[in-house]
Amino acid sequence: MSNPLVSVVLSVYNGEKYLDEAIESILNQSYENFEFIIIDDGSSDKSLEIIRSYDDKRIVVISRENRGLVSSLNEGIEIAKGRYIARMDADDISLATRIEEQVIFMERNSDVGICGTGVIGFGEEIKETPWLLSETDKTIKTELLFSSCFAHPTVMIRRELMIKNELFYDEKFLHAEDFELWTRMAKYTKFANLKMPLLKYRIVQNSITREANIDEENRYRVIKSIFKFYLKRLNIQNSEEENRLHFNLSENIRIRDNKLEFSSLESYFSKIIEANNREKIFDNLELKKVLGKKWFWNVYYKKSIKAIFSKYFFYGVWSVLSK
Asked: What is the DSSP letter of 219?
C-alpha cells in the first residue's frame, strides 16, 4: 500500500495458537485502506510461517531477533505510513467494522488524538462479557490518576502526534508501558472511547499482564512511578501507606483481595479532593465519581451495609450506572 490511511501494528512472539484468528480479523475489515505491519519478534514456533502464508499486499512483514514488545511497537510506529496507528494483539479478534468506526470518528474529531473502544472479554470456559469504557475526555483523564483508561489493543492514535512530540513507549515501564504513555500523551490532545465493543479481548491465564501481577513488588514499583506523575501535579506528598493504598485502588482485583478500610479511603479521598480544589487538575465532579467507583467496589467486595450511606457510594453508583 503506497498511501494507506491506517497502519495496523501487531507484534507477535511465539503466538501461533491464536495468530490466524487475529490476522484474519484485520484482513476481513470492512475498511480496506490500511497497511498491516506484523513484526515477528524472534519467535521459535510457527508464527512466522503463519504470517507468510497470507498473500495480501497490505501485509508488511518484519522478522528479526527478539527485542520485546515495547521495542517492536516503537519500530512499527516509526516505519508506519498511515495517518493513524491502530494497535492489535496476536491473540485478540477485531470485529469487522472496528477500523471503519474508528476512522469515521477520528476524521470527524480532529482534536482527539487517541480513540479506543469497548471490548468483549472471552476465553476458554469464560462467558463472553462486554466491557464498556468511559467515553469523554475529562472522565478518561481523571481515571488516569489510578490506571490505564484504554483497552490497549483497541486504540487508534494519530501518528503525527506521536512523532512530533516523541511519544513512544518506554522500556522502563514494562507491562505498563501503555498506561505510562497515556499519562504523557494527556497534555497534548483529547482522549475518547467509542462506547461500542469493537474487539474481542482474549483472557488467558498466562497473559503478560497476569504474569507481571504475580511479581507484586515489582508491579508496585512500576505503577507507583506512573501515578506519582499526577500526584506531583496535585502537589501531593504521600506516605508509603498511602502509596500502597493508591496502588491497591488501581485494579478491582486488588480492591477485592485487600478489602480496604473505609476510614482509610475516606481520609485519602479527602486529601485528593482538597488538593484538586487547590490545583484544579481534574473536573471536580468527575474526580468524585472516579473515587466513588473505587468506594462502590470496596462496598461490593466487603459486603458493608454501613458504607452505602457515604456520599462516595452515591457517586460510585452514578459512575457505574453511567456506563
From this structure: H
Beta strands 126-131 and 112-123, pairing class: antiparallel
Q: Where are the alpha helices (DSSP H) in the chain?
A: 16-27, 47-52, 69-79, 98-108, 137-143, 159-164, 177-185, 208-214, 216-233, 240-248, 252-258, 262-279, 284-302, 311-321
Per DSSP bridges, beta strands 126-131 and 59-64 are unpaired
Could you give the C-alpha distances from 315 to 17, 91, 322, in angstroms and in order?
A: 43, 36, 11
pLDDT in tens, 192-210: 999 999 999 999 866 555 5
CA distance 210 to 52: 30
Q: What confidence tens digit (pLDDT) does each residue in 247-266 have?
A: 999 999 999 999 899 999 99
Q: Report the predicted TM-score, pTM, of the whole model to 2 decimal places.
A: 0.91
**Hey, what domains does the chain have and what are their CATH numbers?**
6-205 (3.90.550.10), 234-321 (no CATH)
